[in-house]
Amino acid sequence: MNLGKAQIAYPFVEYSVQVTHHTERKSTAMEWMLLEIAQKAESFPDYANIPLENILTSIFSVADGNILLRQVLTDLVDVSALEQIPGFGDRSDWNQIRCGDLRLTDDGRRLQCEGKLPAKALINNLSVVYDVVNNRLVNSSKGMSDNTSYPKAKDIGENNMPGFPSSLINLRIAEWQSDGKNAPSWLQRNSRIDSITPKENTKIKWQNTSHEITIDSNGKLSLSGAPNEEIAEAVLQDTDLGAMPEHGLPIIGVETLLNKRKYAPYAKITNSIENYASKANFFAVTPYFSNIIEGKSNKICLLLGQPSYIFDDTGKNVIVSIPEAFPEGLLYQDNDRSVYAAAVEGHIGANSRMIPYIYEDTSVFSAFVLNQVKKYYMMDRRMMRLLDFIGEVSYREFYTSDYIRDLLNSAEIQELTPIDKILDKLLKLDAKMQNTLGDVPSPASSETIRSALLGKEVEILGDVREWTTQWRETLESLQNKTMVDINTIDWQESPFGLALERMEQVADAVAIFYDDAAIRYNKVYVFDTCALMHYPDVLDDFTNNQALVIIPRQVLVELDRHKTTNDDKKQYQARQAIRKIHEYGEEPWLKQNEDNYLELLSESFRESGIEDFYILSVAVKYRIKDPVMVTDDDNFQNFALSEGVKTITAHNLHEKLTTSISPKGKGKNKKKKKKT
C-alpha cells in the first residue's frame, strides 16, 4: 500500500579544483630555425664562430633578429630545449652571439628531431560536483540548493566533510583525454597532470529527491529507490507519516484497512468532513470537529455526548447533543457514510511507527433523532431566519434547554411554537420597514429617517405609523408570553437589537406628522402673511367648513411688523388681518400655535435663512392631510410646490369655498349681515 512520498536531501560537494599540468607541443617556425642552427653548429664546428646575426640574415632573411628572435631564444632556454647561454640576457648585445653559443639539451635534441617542445608548467581551474552518498562525480549542481529542510541521507557540514575525491577527478581527466568529450579546452591528450588540489571556496549542495513510501500487509515499511536500508530507516524515522491526534485511535491491521469502502491519510480528515458537511443538511460529528459548522448555513449538527441544545454564533445552525456514545473511532456520520479514524503500525529495521488513517463504512443513522429534529427545524427554513434575526444567545432567553428537549421528544411537533410565531411577526414587520427605508443606514437619526420618508409617496407615512404601532403591540405580547423584559437582554448587535432601535427612531420620525387636532378635519389650509393682508375676509368662509386653518406664528410676527410700517396701505391691511384673526381666535378650526419645523424642509431651504420658509415648514408638517398653502406670492407658490405642497390664492380659495357651501350656510349669512 502506498503511503505517499518522502523527500530525501542528498548531499553533494562542489569543488573548485586547481590543476597543475605540462603539455608538449609542436615548435613554431622561429623556434625550429634556432634549434636547426644549434644542431648544425654542433655537427659542423666551422659554424660555431659565425655570428648568429649573419646566419639569420643571409640564410633565413631575418632582417632584425634582435626584435624577432630574442624572446624566442629566451623561451627555448626557459623550457630547457637549449642550454643556458653565458652572459646572455634582456640587455646583452645581440650581435655578440655566435652560432656555437646555441647548444641543445638532451630533451631539446630529442624533441627537435620530433618537431616538439617541452611545455611550461600550466595552472588551470576545474569545477567538479561530488556525489557523497554514491561516491561519484556528477556533471553539474543545477537544480541543487544551498539548504534543505528535508531529512538528509547523510549529514555533512564544515566539521564532517567527506575526503577530497582526487582519484575520481584523475579518472575523470583520464576519460576526457581518452575520448575528448566534454573536456576543457586546455586539456590535451598528451597533457601530463602534475597535481590536483582543492581551492578554498568549497560549497555544500543538496538535491531533494522523492521516494515512494510503501507498507506491505505485514506492516513493513520501505522506501523505493533508497540507496540502502540504513538510509531508508533514518529518513522514515524523521518523515511525517501523519500526526496522531490528541484523542486515542484504535489500531487496525493493514489488510483490514485495505478492505474498507474508502480510506485516506488522517491528515485529510478535515477536508473530507468539510466536503461531506457542505452537502448534507443533517449530520453527526465528534466534538473534536464541531468547528466545521462554522461558515455553513442552515445546518443541523448532532454532537453525540451529553444532552444539550444550542445554536452557533451565526444563529443559523442548530447544534444538538444527544446522550448516545460514539462507536470507537467514529468521527462523522450522515445518511450516506460513517467516517472512522484508526492507526496502522509500520516498522522498518528496529524502528516502528504508528500511522493514522481514516476510512468509510456504510452509515447507520438514528432515524428517530433525525426525524424529530428535521420536523421542527427544517420545514420551511423560517426557524433559521428567526435564529438569524434574534441570535442564539438571546433566543435562549425565551426557550430553556429543557423545553426544547421536551419539544424534540414529544409525539407532535409544531412547525412554529406560539413564541416563534410572535418572533416571526416581528421579523416580517422589520423586513417591511427595512425595505421601505432602502439605503438609510441603521441605526440612523430620526431626522435622517424622516427626510427619507418625505421623499416617498405620502401614503407611506400611514403605513410606517401602522407598522410601528403593530411592532409595539407585538413586543408587548412577547413580553407577556415569555415573562422576559426585552430591555434587560444584551442583544449583542443582533439584527433584532438593531430593529428595536430602528423602530423607535422611525416612530419618533413620523410622530410629528400626526396631530390629534387635525384628525377630524378633511382639509388643512396654511396661510401666509400676504394672503391674509390681501383678503382677510376669507376666514369667514371657514365657519361651516370641515377644514383646519393654520396661521403660523411667523405670520403673526410679520403682521405685527407691518401694522407699524410707514406704508399706510400695508398698515391698514395688517390691522384688518389681525382683527379678523382675533375675531375667530377661539374657534377650534383655527390654530395659531404652530412655530416652525425647518428640519422637514430640503437642506437648501433650511440653511437659506429666509423667514418665509418657517411658514412653509408648517404646511409640510401636515403632509398626511394633503395641506394647501394659501399665498398670493407667485414665487412662494413655487417654493411650496417644490416641497410637494399644493397652493392657492386667497381670492381663489374664497371662490372655491363659497361655491361649495349651501346658501343656508352660516358663514355666508354672517357675511351678508355685515354688509347691511
The coarse silhouette is elongated
Structural class: alpha/beta
Mean pLDDT: 82
Residues in helices, as a percent range: 25-40%
Q: Report the C-alpha radius of gyration, rounded.
A: 55 Å
Distance between the termini: 123 Å
Put simply, the count of helices is: 24
Summarize it.
With 676 residues, the chain is α/β, with parallel strands linked by helices.
Give descriptors for this structure:
six-stranded antiparallel beta sheet; 24 helices; alpha/beta; 21 strands; 39% helix; elongated; 676 residues
Tell me about this structure.
By secondary structure, the chain is α/β, with parallel strands linked by helices. Helix content is 39%, strand content 19%. The chain contains 24 helices and 21 strands. Strands 9-16-15-14-10-11-13-12 form an eight-stranded mixed β-sheet, sandwiched between helices. Helix 14 crosses helix 16 and helix 15 crosses helix 16. The longest helix has 24 residues. The radius of gyration is 55 Å and the shape is elongated.
